[in-house]
Amino acid sequence: MTGSRRAHPSRVPVLALGATLLITLQGELHDSMAEQLQEDLTHRIAHSPVTGVVIDISGVDIVDSFLGRVLAEIASHARLMAARTILAGMRPAVAITLVELGLTLPGLPTALDVERALAMFEHGPCPDPPHPRRANHADLP
Amino acid sequence: MQVSEQDAASEWAARKVGEFLRVRQEQIAQRWADAELFRTVFTVSRDEAVEAGKAVVDALSDVASSGRLDDITAPGFQTVRDQLGRMAASRARTGSTPAQVAGEVAELHQPAVTLLRGEFPDPAGDQAQECALALTVLMGTLRLVVMETTLRQGDELIARQRLQLLEVATPVIKLWDGIVAVPLIGTLDSARSQVVMESLLDAIVAERARYAILDITGVPTVDSLVAQHLMKTVAAARLMGAECIVSGIRPAIAQTIVHLGIDLGTVVTRSSLADALAYALRQQGIVVAPRTPVGANLS
Amino acid sequence: MQTSHDTGTIRLPIGSDTDLAWVRQQVRQAAAELGFGLVQQTKLVTAVSELARNTLIHGGGGQVEMTVLHQGPVLGLRLAFTDDGPGIRDIEQAMTDGYTTGSGLGMGLSGAKRLVQEFGIDSRPGGGTTITVAAWATGLPHPRAEDG
């Protein structure tokens, strides 16, 4: 992070590994980029034989409710098109903050890192999460 | 008019005391260097004690000149707060209580007042009286400043020790490849659960754990707040790709949980740490079986 | 004893999502310099992101004022988000988990409140909104009421 006001970055790169798409989010993510990504992904999944999506957020400093919503929606759109999404590499500080914020992303499977996420696709014992409960993210007592 | 005359008199006295402190800085500091407070703190050399004394006299002179004799927040004190704090801390290390330190500060009063009275042709006259009173008030304020600094340092020390204790009291143990556990002992309040959550998540990263066991055998009671802390920890671990198992739910606690209507939701629970470990091993496809006895039929 | 005093205030505009990113960066940097721990920093920056987005989307843009706080030896940050938007009609409702008028998850205001130590809203219908939060650098949990 340079600390200077940068030009508006354009797109998040999407990498195809066989039938799996790998998305690496990094640093500051502008709202418009997140929305653009959501559109791009839906398009990619619809037009190619994608069965899995891994979103690597190990390089992301914060996840707020906006990005949380985008991630949850990507997962539920992908599921509608028969692709599974795994969120990989969340940092401890981000996880603690998200829980305190009240976002537990119940419909989204998670993995420690990309390697684990890819292994989950290979071995397949990734239990399909319950039906996405978009409206019910505050499932803490 | 009576009041404003009195005001004028005390204003004059404050200024006079400020002036006296500036002019007699060296003499006062020399006397203070022999007082218990300075003598015991600055053991290396007497000069050091004199220098420290001068700094305090300077500060008092500033405060007196600003007319805020009884104001512990007077800006004049700012320059010596750190020094006074270190002096008080040094006394505290040798076993003095804050009250004893305050007493030692009070002892600085007499030598200064004696010097002050000597400035006047009539040491018992009205003017001398007025100034001595002003100096007494000022020295009282200094005592309060020292006490406040001491108490605040005490608070910081307690808070720091409390945090250290929390960290010591929440070890995260690796039980197997990919399985970590935290045996929780004692009350689980917000501060504690923050530390538990952070240590557990850090351990999940460090050990690349898939399973994290929260053992509450040593937690005396589980109320809805404790349950909420547990649920938060479970949720945070899940966001990092690890499954949490809560173990050590004694029958009494299970009853409380049901009685309070606490919903542990989808959290996996086991009655003992051993059961939780067995579950985590089984989930990873690891089977622990007794070794085939020697001489058994190996058909 | 409230002995907090100010030492310099920075004002940042909130008018676009590039501004949101800039505000997050500035707050992150300030918090790091004041000695906030990583978790404390992350909580504060996340709260700031929620509140700045609230200013942008519901208030039609505005600004945030960042002030360094001293309370004895403890350092902190106060952030005041101001807009001239339509204001909040029912503050209590807006602070409820899951309540949303926009496209978010409705965790913005209530969630942000749980991430900071002090939180206040000043708003009148038609009179704009100011949301002020404060967080302290101390890694020690701040003595505050347990939230239920």
Descriptors for this entry?
heterotrimer; B: 299 residues; alpha/beta; Globin-like; Transcription Regulator spoIIAA; five-stranded mixed β-sheet; 64% helix; C: 148 residues; alpha+beta; Heat Shock Protein 90; five-stranded antiparallel β-sheet; globular; disordered N terminus; disordered C terminus
Structure characterization notes:
The complex is a heterotrimer of chains A (141), B (299) and C (148). The N terminus and C terminus of chain A are likely disordered. Chain A has a 5-stranded mixed beta sheet with strand order 1-2-3-4-5. Chain A has 4 helices and 5 strands. With 141 residues, chain A is α/β, with parallel strands linked by helices. The radius of gyration of chain A is 15 Å and the shape is globular. In chain A, helix 1 packs parallel to helix 2. Chain B is an alpha/beta fold and 299 residues long. Chain B folds into 2 domains: 154 residues, Globin-like; 111 residues, STAS domain (Transcription Regulator spoIIAA). Helix content of chain B is 64%, strand content 9%. Chain B is built from 12 helices and 5 strands. In chain B, strand 1 and strand 2 form a beta hairpin. The model of chain B has no long low-confidence stretch (mean pLDDT 86). Helix content of chain C is 33%, strand content 30%. In chain C, helix 1 packs antiparallel against helix 2 and helix 2 packs antiparallel against helix 4. The longest helix of chain C is centred in the N-terminal third of the chain and has 20 residues. Chain C starts with a strand and ends in a 12-residue tail after the last strand. The chains are: A alpha/beta (141), B alpha/beta (299), C alpha+beta (148).
Q: Can you identify the CATH class of chain C?
A: Alpha Beta
* Overall helicity of chain B: 55-70%
Based on DSSP secondary structure assignment, what is the total number of beta strands of chain B?
5
Given helix and strand content, the structural type of chain C is alpha+beta
Shape label of chain C = globular
